[in-house]
Predict the 3D structure of the following.
Amino acid sequence: MEVCKTQAVEGDFGELFAAVCVFCRQKQGKLVADIFESLDVQDDERVQAVTDALKFECPQDWRIVSINCSCVVIKQFTHSCRDVWLLQIAGG
């Protein structure tokens, strides 16, 4: 997981895509949220990499409930509780 964290920040858009896929497969929503906190929305390749990874690998028990120009809200449902991550993707 540490390699993925590093590659998500320091790697190219392909490595970012792979890292987000791994985070989704391992249900590491906090790590996905961390990606959004540092994502430069002006970098089209990196934004597309994250979008594609979520499109292909977002766990079924996560629900993207809100998307707008300033944030994405993903809810993760678990057996014992419900966690909500607010993923900032722009200065809002």
Q: What stands out?
A: The beta strands are 62-67, 71-77, 82-88. The radius of gyration is 12 Å. Residues 66-71, 77-92 have pLDDT under 50 and may be disordered. The first strand starts at residue 62 and ends at 67.
